[in-house]
């Protein structure tokens, strides 16, 4: 390589990610945009200049509470459309796309579609067997205290974050009704195959950008059997299968599709899972980086995969968990 400065190729310093902005005509459609991963992603994309179409399904009282968050997004100088409708119905989807299509005009295009729908049945497949709880009575007997007092102390300390006490705390309770075929069907559509409906309709209307990025969200429950998670687990597997087909069949149209697998993350959806406090405790103890995944961690990955540099990533399941899935160690 020549040492003459005049003959060396000019090297421009890479722009910092915080300085990189999307085109003013780029839009993101976020399904489930009022909380959790959806809202965190909306914040991240808004900070980089992407216009937003946020679809959510909330009661009026909740919708009023989240409106200030939407106003903060608008303060970033972007356009924000919000739709409190049923994203799973053909009528709801059509109403959103009609309004968005009118707003896009001739130049606007959907660059990002995030499917962050959390609507599923969390029931058991089978009645619970009698609990074999030998540790708590044995420890209480050794300490000479009533087992009820031991359990109460364990519950209090476990609730304060002493994760190693999960085996002594009161076990979670589950709904008495068991999963039925309709529960599976509704959950698989809501959290899985409804992604296909949105991709097909956006494409049919010609609303996608030439290099659009679509995303679904899965979890470690796609391969592990968590109690009460059977229907959601089936939905996650269906989502991953649908995403692979989207990547293959819509790829020639410039549409990429990837699935993100966050680690255990405190979201409203997690809180609805019976025994979620034990999932939190287990994840926190085995995560190599010593903390839970956050919605912002996932939002950052959506942003990175929406950049031009990530255009060759397609049809993948990408773990965003700090190494949680590879760790067999509990601290």
Summarize the topology.
Elements: E1 26-31, H1 36-47, E2 51-56, H2 60-74, E3 80-84, H3 90-104, E4 109-115, H4 135-143, H5 147-159, H6 181-204, E5 208-217, H7 230-250, E6 255-262, H8 268-271, H9 276-286, H10 295-305, E7 317-320
Parallel strand pairs: 1-2, 1-4, 2-3, 4-5, 5-6, 6-7
Mind telling me the CATH class of the largest domain? Answer: Alpha Beta
What fold name stands as the CATH topology of the largest domain?
Rossmann fold
Please state how the strands of the largest beta sheet are arranged side by side: 3-2-1-4-5-6-7
Q: Which strand-content bin applies to the residues?
A: 5-15%
The level of helicity is 40-55%
Radius of gyration: 23 Å
Extended strand count: 7
How is this structure best described in words?
The protein is α/β, with parallel strands linked by helices. It has two domains: 23-127 and 181-326, Rossmann fold (3-Layer(aba) Sandwich); 132-170. It contains ten helices and seven strands. A seven-stranded parallel β-sheet has the order 3-2-1-4-5-6-7, sandwiched between helices. Helix 1 (36-47) packs across helix 10.
